[in-house]
């Protein structure tokens, strides 16, 4: 069973996002869920890769001028 350490929700346009830092017997991980039009998509990033993941997002945004 997962324990939620911290969680945030945000709405962007018609999409609802849930960002949760969770922990289970295998370790900590970041779970990002998108809900839109009755559908749900989730990605899970192990805590060991969160810095690399956020750095990649920053690089893509810097390159695109976003």
Topology:
Layout: E1 3-12, E2 15-24, E3 27-36, E4 39-46, H1 50-64
Antiparallel strand pairs: 1-2, 2-3, 3-4
Extended strand count = 4
Order of helices and strands: EEEEH
Reported CATH architecture: Roll
**How far apart, in Å, are the first and last alpha carbons?**
38 Å
What is the spatial order of strands in the main beta sheet? 1-2-3-4
| Percent strand | over 45%
The best one-word shape is: flat
Please give the domain count. Answer: 1
What is the class in the CATH system?
Alpha Beta
Major sheet: size, sense and barrel closure? 4 strands, antiparallel
Q: Low-confidence stretches at least 5 residues in length (pLDDT < 50)? A: none
How many helices? The count is: 1
Any idea what the radius of gyration is? Answer: 13 Å
Q: Which class do the helix and strand fractions yield?
A: alpha+beta
Give the rounded overall mean pLDDT: 95
- How is the CATH topology named? Nuclear Transport Factor 2, Chain: A
Helix content: 10-25%
Structural notes for this entry:
The protein contains one helix and four strands. It has 66 residues and is α+β, with helices and mostly antiparallel strands. It has a single domain, classed as Nuclear Transport Factor 2, Chain: A. Strands 1-2-3-4 form a four-stranded antiparallel β-sheet, with no helix packed on it. β3 and β4 form a beta hairpin. It starts with a strand and ends with a helix.
């Amino acid at each position: 069973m997962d324990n939620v350490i911290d969680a945030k929700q945000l709405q962007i346009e018609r999409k609802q996002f849930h960002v949760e830092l969770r922990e289970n017997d295998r370790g900590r991980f970041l779970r990002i869920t998108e809900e839109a039009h009755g559908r749900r998509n989730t990605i899970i990033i192990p805590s060991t890769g969160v810095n690399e993941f956020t750095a990649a997002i920053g690089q893509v945004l810097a390159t695109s001028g976003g």
